[in-house]
Amino acid sequence: MATVTTDKEPNMRTIxxxxxxxxxxxxxxxxxxxxxxxxxxxxxxEPARGGGEDVWSAQAEAEVAQGGGFPEHLVVMVNGLxxxxxxxxxxAEQFVRRMPEKVIVHRSQCNSATxxxxxxxxxxxxxxxxxxxxxxxxxxxKKISFVAHSLGGLVARYAIGRLYEPNNKTKSSSEKSRDEGxxxxxxxxxxxxxxxxxxxxxxLGSSGNKQNKTFKFFSNVSLMFRFFHQLPFLCGLPFxxxxxxxxxxxxxxxxxxxxxxxxNDDGRRPLLLQMVDDCDDIKFRSALRSFKRRVAYANANFDxxx
Length: 306
Fold this sequence. Notes:
Number of domains: 2
Shape: globular
Number of strands: 11
CATH class of the largest domain: Alpha Beta
CATH architecture of the largest domain: 3-Layer(aba) Sandwich
């Protein structure tokens, strides 16, 4: 695994790993995670009012009954293309079992199956509304993190832009953490932004199958480049992928246009280009900067989707 940290953005890291990108795929390589290490806290689950499912530890609930506090850190998990909340079932349970007193996990369900064809913006709006519903239901939460897979990373970025609230106040002494005089950049749905983590997310969009001529004499390198920027339903066939930017919208609707940067709604720039900076009504860049930690995970090999 390799980690690259930029000088200008010390909290922004790109981490390359060789594990499968899908949330469920790593279970095949890491069966030891299923093994119990002592007595594991039981997991409680409840459908959220706005859709999806909330997961937390029964141990935390017992402490509330004894006068303790409920977990204050909300972790929102977002699925990718043609995915669902079930993709995060195992991961959500592991979160609450390893940090029973700290987190409550919400598995988002507002963008499932063919709903993921509706476009990044519409999915982002739905996710933002779902998060607001969860925060309204769980009034005790104070912090928020996002964990997203594949297309879900773009959806989450759009949603936080919609949920962002600038902060003009310095944190009180009781709220300061590691750094003296630390100042919050802003809030997400009224909560303190903590972690924004994506797995195999196409943050730069996709460009179809484009052979890199620079490496044409190196067959192994060329083969690797052929597998970049693919859509799973094209089966890795180069002649289909070369036409992907022209036909993706026929298969995955507006999402295809957004991924290949071919959208121009009302003559505006492609949505993914808009999302690299703040817009008049949605503060994409400021929202992302507000998180204490921002991490993008990607596979070094064998990720034919990216």
